[in-house]
Amino acid sequence: MSYELTEENRKLQAMVRDFADTVVAPAAYEYDTKRALPYGIIAEMGEMGLFGLPFPTEYGGQGRDYFALCLAVEQLARVDQSIAVTLEAGVGLGIMPVYRRGTEEQKQEWVPRLASGSALAAFGLTEAEAGSDAAGTRTTATLDGGEWVINGTKQFITNSGSEITRLVTVTAVTGVETRPDGSVKKELTAILVPTPTPGFTALPAYDKVGWHTSDTHPLVFDDVRVPEANLLGERGRGFANFVQTLDEGRIAFAALCTGAAAGCLEESIRYANSRNVFGRSIGSNQHIAFKIARMQARVHTARLAWQDAALKMVNGQPFKMEASIAKMVGSEAAMDNARDATQIFGGYGFMNENPVARHYRDSKVLELGEGTTEVQLMVISRALGFTG
């Protein structure tokens, strides 16, 4: 398996890197301060085809693959994690479930629109009592006169309340089975909820530690009615389907982590070479040079990890464990590099206009989202045969 980029992927990487450096980076501090999603930048990303990268041209996509998406996400995350996660979640959690499991009618209706970047979709899984433990899901959906009636709440949902959000995929309990031993098994099903739909409310955005530009809301479903045909995939397959969605999403998330770690590395190299103290650059001090060398090692390892998982995925090979390894390694690299970069910059690293300060705030969530580090360790250990 070769990790050498094709000429096409090198061109994509260079294009997105240039866009990130010339368009996203200069505006990052302004939008971070405003805590607002920059719709103009999102529109430009749509025009570049970034939201349609892994989808066939017949659905308005670019005919590329998931590896290409990850390359784009990594380059964006170097300068702004919020913009990167808008793309990563918009594709991996928003469009991909519809493309993977939707009917032909559903795909024709939603994928071209979402792939254009003119609309965003969200994945409503997490609740106060459910996330890693899907059995804790309390949101319900019952059939009534050919319609699903949905009631419940969701939390921490990305891209769910923006001005261009047009679809939320909701996981809900659609039945309960009592087993012979008296235990209860919930039937989980995924259902498409267009926005706006009466009874669906995106509550005010969270006041987050980081990812200020990313759109994140709690959601309320109060007797929300959608057609029975809005069932996504098979009834009762919601659990299996969302596990696959998260497995795939972790690879792109790992690429985002790698980009964040790389952004901290690049800023640290630049500063260490330009900042002079006692008549010489701080990079000439071995303890600074060694710190940056460790940062480089983390980026290299994280990049190899997500590329390995992505290549296995696009080649149809098992990748579940590799995706969890990539996500864990990448998130730890991002957090460690953000901490070291802030230390290298000293007081300047504590100022919000400095990119490393934003990475320091943003990177902690990388160890939480798309499954915590502990969840990744659980997945990896199970793959190794440990079932305790």
TrEMBL record:
Belongs to the acyl-CoA dehydrogenase family. SUPFAM superfamilies: Acyl-CoA dehydrogenase C-terminal domain-like, Acyl-CoA dehydrogenase NM domain-like. It holds the Pfam family Acyl-CoA_dh_N. It comes from the Bacteria. Transmembrane segments: none annotated. GO terms for molecular function: acyl-CoA dehydrogenase activity; flavin adenine dinucleotide binding. InterPro entries: Acyl-CoA_DH_CS, Acyl-CoA_Oxase/DH_mid-dom, Acyl-CoA_Oxase/DH_mid-dom_sf, AcylCo_DH-like_C, AcylCo_DH/oxidase_C, AcylCoA_DH/ox_N, AcylCoA_DH/ox_N_sf, AcylCoA_DH/oxidase_NM_dom_sf. This is Acyl-CoA dehydrogenase. Residues 236-384 form the Acyl-CoA dehydrogenase/oxidase C-terminal domain. Residues 6-117 form the Acyl-CoA dehydrogenase/oxidase N-terminal domain. Its cofactor is FAD. It comes from Cryobacterium fucosi. Keywords: FAD, Flavoprotein, Oxidoreductase. Residues 122-224 form the Acyl-CoA oxidase/dehydrogenase middle domain.
